[in-house]
């Protein structure tokens, strides 16, 4: 099959478009916009008002950790593939007998410090000690609500697992003693014990310090097993690239799509999807079932915290997905993949 990198090269280019001279960049998108400095300052001021926010958690949003662990292990011990949501973009996926953990953020703060910054208002769906052996840890990018240093430190005894990251993010794990680290460019593929993992584009950015903006790549992933094909969108704004993914790698059985962190739109549209755009991604990649993520865990933006699910299910129904095809899971919930 033709290398998809060729679709984004000019005849004179030796490198694909997303490989800038010094930093990675998004694929061309005529709708890509950026806010002004004044708009960012206004946003940060409004976010400060939520610093001591008391969140009223709706019934059923979170399953108690002991019960969640019990249900998870029942699914892990069955012959079926399964999916457990731990909050934000962190899922435990069992597929063809292997376990994959995505974007691990299981402690309190989405921040470089352990005592300040955006803080989870609900605990992780599963306590770290109750997680099973992890075969593959799948990272979409390096933001703190997806790659949590404290979580990684607490997983230091699990160094037999294979870490899969976008380009230039592998050194983060090698420095911490992990030996099995695979870096992937967009369109690369990996044979994960018989399950095929493809690293695919997304529209986002990367940064962990003041000096490393877009020095590492970001990605979405497809996960192809014998019975099920999953698409993990990672963190992304809406872009035309998803139709290309659908054509080349779809259809999918399940698409894990972000439905939160979208206001104010003038700032967030390039980086995060609204619930309606999340459904559009699912349509573009030709997924049979949509699974909501990236909401209900930590406040990152200004929209009402529990607004996204209603908009998501309404948009999914309008697009022709019935109730069994648009999942809004509880944190800690496990479901079979059939």
Any overview of this molecule?
With 338 residues, this protein is an alpha/beta fold. Helix 3 links the parallel strand 4 (136-138) and strand 5. It is built from eight helices and 14 strands.
Mean pLDDT across residues: 94
Structural class: alpha/beta
Oligomeric state: single chain
Return the string of H and E elements.
HHEEEEHEHEEEEEHEHHEHEE
Query: Based on DSSP secondary structure assignment, what is the total number of beta strands?
Result: 14
Distance between the termini: 29 Å
Question: How are the strands ordered across the major sheet?
Answer: 6-5-4-3-2-1-14
Biggest sheet features: 7 strands, mixed
* Beta-strand fraction estimate: 15-25%
Rg for CA atoms:
19 Å
Overall helicity: 10-25%
Q: How many helices in DSSP terms? A: 8
**Overall geometric form:** globular
- List the uncertain runs: 6-12
């Amino acid at each position: 099959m033709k290398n998809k990198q060729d679709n984004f090269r000019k005849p004179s280019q030796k490198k694909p478009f997303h490989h800038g001279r010094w930093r990675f960049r998004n694929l061309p998108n005529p709708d890509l916009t950026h806010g002004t400095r004044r708009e960012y300052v206004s946003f940060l001021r409004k976010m400060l008002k939520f610093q001591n926010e008391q969140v009223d958690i709706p019934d059923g949003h979170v399953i108690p950790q002991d019960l969640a662990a019990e249900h998870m292990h029942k699914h892990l011990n069955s012959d079926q593939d399964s999916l457990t949501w731990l909050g934000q973009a962190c899922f435990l996926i069992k597929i063809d007998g292997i376990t994959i953990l995505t974007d691990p953020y299981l402690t309190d703060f989405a921040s470089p410090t352990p005592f300040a910054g955006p803080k989870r208002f609900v605990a992780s769906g599963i306590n770290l000690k109750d997680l099973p052996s992890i075969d593959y840890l799948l990272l979409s990018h390096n933001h703190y609500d997806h790659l949590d240093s404290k979580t990684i430190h607490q997983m230091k005894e699990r160094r037999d697992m294979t870490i899969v990251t976008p380009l230039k993010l592998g050194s983060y794990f090698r420095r911490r003693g992990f030996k099995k680290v695979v870096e992937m460019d967009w369109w690369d593929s990996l044979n994960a014990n018989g399950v095929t993992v493809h690293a695919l584009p997304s529209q986002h950015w990367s940064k962990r310090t003041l000096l490393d903006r877009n020095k590492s790549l970001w990605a979405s992933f497809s996960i192809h097993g014998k019975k099920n094909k999953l698409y993990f969108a990672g963190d992304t704004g809406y872009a035309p690239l998803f139709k290309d993914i659908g054509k080349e790698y779809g259809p999918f059985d399940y698409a894990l799509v972000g439905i939160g962190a979208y206001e104010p739109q003038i700032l967030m549209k390039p980086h995060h999807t609204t619930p309606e755009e999340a459904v559009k991604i699912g349509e573009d990649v030709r997924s049979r079932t949509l699974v909501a993520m990236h909401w209900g865990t930590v406040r990152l933006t200004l929209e009402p915290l529990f607004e996204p699910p209603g908009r998501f299910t309404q948009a999914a129904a309008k697009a022709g997905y019935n109730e069994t095809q648009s999942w809004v899971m509880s944190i800690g919930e496990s479901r079979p993949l059939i």
